[in-house]
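Lecture 7 notes: from sequence to structure.
We start with the chain below.
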Amino acid sequence: MKTLPLIILVRHGQTKWNVEGRYQGRLNSDLTQKGKEQAKDNAIKIAKVLNVNEPFKIFSSPLGRAKESCYIICDTLGVDKREVIFDERISEFNYGIFEGKTKVECQEKYPQILAEREANKWSYQIENGESYMLVTDRLKSWLESVKDEKTVVMVAHEMVNRALRGLYCSLDSDSMLLLRQANDVVVKLENFEENIVV
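Predicted structure tokens for the same chain:
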């Protein structure tokens, strides 16, 4: 793509399952109090790089933890919640049979599957779930749909945000898989590069 918008990329606030070390994927758990505070703090970071009086679009994953975080961000920024566009394509990576289970439980129950996935994270598709290759395909579709926008705020999830950052910055799959984004980190994607908003 020759042009891409400025994208302010946010991860939802901390959830109960984040604390417990459970795979969430398409399932959901509620934000903790800390997670709600992180969403407010993330809104303050967004305000450092976004003029809310100028046109922009705000997208959110439809999953509960992202939606709740997005609404807190809207309230903090004074943005009408009715402006939020929910898009299935930016829903979290589907962890299939791992969802709802802790990493320790998966190591005990699915050691072979975990080993196979670790050996080929990019294209290994978890049973009833996805591979990073499939996630990247749906994100390509989303990115194409927003390419003519000027500024976009996206509230989503660590795994899907990782894939989007890789696409936006033209990273190879190995580099993309190394990316991390804590619940209190806001990433600014601009001119095919990324920076952390502090």
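Points to note: The radius of gyration is 16 Å. The mean pLDDT is 96.
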